Amino acid sequence: MVDSRGTDAIAWETAVAAIAGPRYRAIVQAVETAVETGYLRPGDRLPPQRDLARRLGVNLGTVGQAYATMQESGLVSGEVGRGTFIARPERADGPRSLWDHSAPETFVDLSHNFPDRAPLHPAVADIVREAAAAMDLGPLLARQIDAGLPAHRQAAAAWLARFGLDRPAVDVMITCGGQHGLALAMAALSQPGDSVLTEELTFYGLRSAAGMMGRTLLGVRMDRQGLMPEYLDIACRRTGAKVLFCTPTLHNPTTATMPAGRRREILEVARRHDLMIVEDDVWGFMPETPELPFAALDPERSVYVTSLSKIVGPGLRIGMLCMPRHAAPALGVALRATTLMASPLTAEWAARLVASPIMDGVIGSVRREIGARQGIVGACLPEPSLITRPDSFNVWMKLTNGWSAETFTRAAEAAGVGVTPCSMFEVGIRNRSDAVRICLNGAPDRAALTWALRRLAGTLAQSSTGCVRGRALR
Questions:
Q1: Cα separation of 25 and 228, whole Å?
Q2: Any idea what the Cα angle at residue 459 is, between residues 454 and 461, rounded to 5°?
Q3: What is the pLDDT of residues 296-318, one digit of tens each?
């Protein structure tokens, strides 16, 4: 059996003889090391017990004890009539540095866009001046209106019109950020136990929301232009799913962006199968000439979710959700069941920002900084390994030289740089590419980004084979 990198996928067996101790424990340790180093992955099938006993020269009971030990620990799962498979481990709901702030100050965290030492917004002075204007706090503190105050919804509708959404304020809901909007749509449009479609690689926040609500995410094949219509059609026919979550512009993590023709093809499939589309468009402000969103092309079939986090900063927990009228009651129930409403105080600040003439300058400053950082990427990392766009906050880097995503992530961390492995984004166990996401905005300045990318390039240039095999044989 040969894996996608051409490496002997059962080479872990040769390590058993060199491991001291009881033979069943040696088998367990060899499998654990193979999983840790990426030579065995979730979904890989282990040899039948009798075959492995013969190859290792041990009795069948020893192998049976090893398999039972691994199953009890959750390392493997047995399926009657099919065999024993490497189990999917419990995965974190995001990069570790989101909650663990113990990294040294010299560590450059490119695992997400806004870590502890992320740079200040290049237009922070303008944003702060706008925020400092006096507010009439009394009415903002006294009112409880779930979908948002009329003035705030009107400001949001005017903002969304910049992106091709010509919708009245009544179709707009104020949320506590983009993640909140995705969770509201998940709760409103599906039921516990439902299957929900998304890209085969997707934002880990969506995975967390689906898991918490008891929905099953099913991945749909992608190419460089995003979701593939023919595979979406197959998924709809096979599963009967009625909701699709997707990011058609600057997909996270691959940066894929659907052209207009691909969007029309996806909509045709959705209409055939009566599929609702939830569109995550938090990056829609970055392209100079963005494509029309699904919610503009078919308003009755689309829920549009965005926020100001990537434009202004994650501390401004305000998002906007544009909805078809028929979905408004269920979305309102979900809003009241979660946060009751978004903070009117924060929404007032956001409404002032989106109505202010400074916002063109704010967006321009973000685009220029990301463009400059993308230029640094091209000078530091090997171009054949990269999937990115000049207007993307992140880079998707394919790994070479035998690196698995997990081992490369650990090696990068040891070199002082944080990245995010592909497993954080995988839906199901069919996706077997080894890649990491590199968030360019995580470095405090361009010099730190240059240093970090050169460290990653040096790590990538090394072969992992000796390291992996040496560890397996100890």
A1: 45
A2: 95
A3: 999 999 999 999 999 999 999 99
